[in-house]
Amino acid sequence: MPTDIQIAQAAKLDPIVKVAAEAGIPEDDLELYGKYKAKLSREFLRSVESKPNGKLVLVTALTPTPAGEGKTTVSVGLADALRHIGKKSVLALREPSLGPVFGVKGGAAGGGYSQVVPMEDINLHFTGDLHAITAANNLLAAMIDNHIYQGNKLGIDPRRITWKRAVDMNDRQLRYIVDGMGGKAHGVVREDGFQITVATEVMALFCLATSLDDLKARCARIVIGETYSGERVTAGDLHAEGAMAALLRDALSPNLVQTLEHTPAIVHGGPFANIAHGCNSVSATKLALKLGEYCVTEAGFGADLGAEKFLDIKCRMAGLRPDACVIVATIRAMKHHGGGDDLAALEAGFANLERHIRNIREVYNLSAAVAINRFTTDTDEEVALVQRLCESIGAKAVPVTIWADGGAGGTELAKEVVRLCEEGKSDLTYCYPDEMKLKDKIRAVVKRVYRGKGVTFAAPASRELNRLQKEGYGNLPVCLAKTQYSFSDNPKLLAAPEDFEVTIRDVRLSAGAGFVVAYAGDIMTMPGLPPVPAAESIDLDENGNIVGLF
User: Can you give the pTM of this predicted structure?
Assistant: First the structure.
């Protein structure tokens, strides 16, 4: 079987102007990045605002293994499969981060015969969006330190600066640094650090912004630290928002590409779901809803992370309401959660999938189907067992072979998704109301979604939450940053643990994005590379073609 990149490189792509025309996008509204990529004009986005929306389908997953369970692959395959059964679908996905590309998971363009292409471009520099976000983040960092160096009129306390620099790479060496060294001419010495670009507030607010004016206003609200007297300092106080918005202007326009089967795909924005909100841009999702009968989108990692934030943050802010959800599951992951490699382990590990199904249906009141992303090593007996277990709780599980067969391997799933959408039983409810206090919102997520017994707030986190509540930020949603490998904050607690407590060690206001981030356990905003990073296998052949990318 050829590799993902070999499949992508052998594919015959349609010119992007043809893909756009079939989606109803005039060529004059395209900014071309070669033959197969384009950005869409702001004028076009405004021109379709009055069109009716299609159906919104959210693809999420059970708690994954480190390799991931193929959620993006299933999303791509489902969009193609909907076209196989005569439905006009449009895909809305996140942009990949270079960290996982060169780390352990590889790219985020799907896999096998369910990919978005050109795969190498999308997984690497694409149209430069992530570079623009990195530059805007680091411009603000530079302006902070320059303000202090030039006399510090605002009285910024260097010990209380919370804004970090960014790079889109897994680089643990940069988590904690000291900069400004070398003497007075080179700045003010202080402790500093880096985040990966996809974990930054600039990425989060970029994906939630609805216009250039909204983008600039969100940048202005960013809190970068405090003064010596304890007052919060914003990017607006530094007059940085205009220049940041200028760097982000072109990036804010959504990107149009295609699947291997030429389904239109809008790939735009890419925050992590374990340390950010994990969803593609609001503009991409809303545009896909206008262009197709069905918009297929995804949210990162398991449903306790990406789906929770998609529903409690993105949908709340953008007024989106999913018509159906698809929960991606693998035999491999359930065996992992069950602690073995036989049918007994598979049945034990089903508890993890069951909790995700119940959360989607009972907490958020949404219809859900299960997609069994079938590997060649999965037996008929194993697949049948998962189907029976799902049926026992009133859920339908559909095996898909979209990695090997493309859209043709997902038509039964597509039919089930259409049935759920047309049935119309989804009626989104949130995990918590706006007026609930911040600490209680965190408790609600832990108890209702994670099914833990409670929350322990470290003293600094408790003080900051009390302060935010007092300062009028209590109406904001919460964004819990935690491990993606467990419902708890301990990655070793697999399956469906109970009677655990989640420890919130730190809290940060993301005023520009419009939520409060609560850090649980040992989660970090700058990942590191594994012992054998994927980068070691990536190379160029004698003709300059990229090899080893997956």
Answer: 0.94
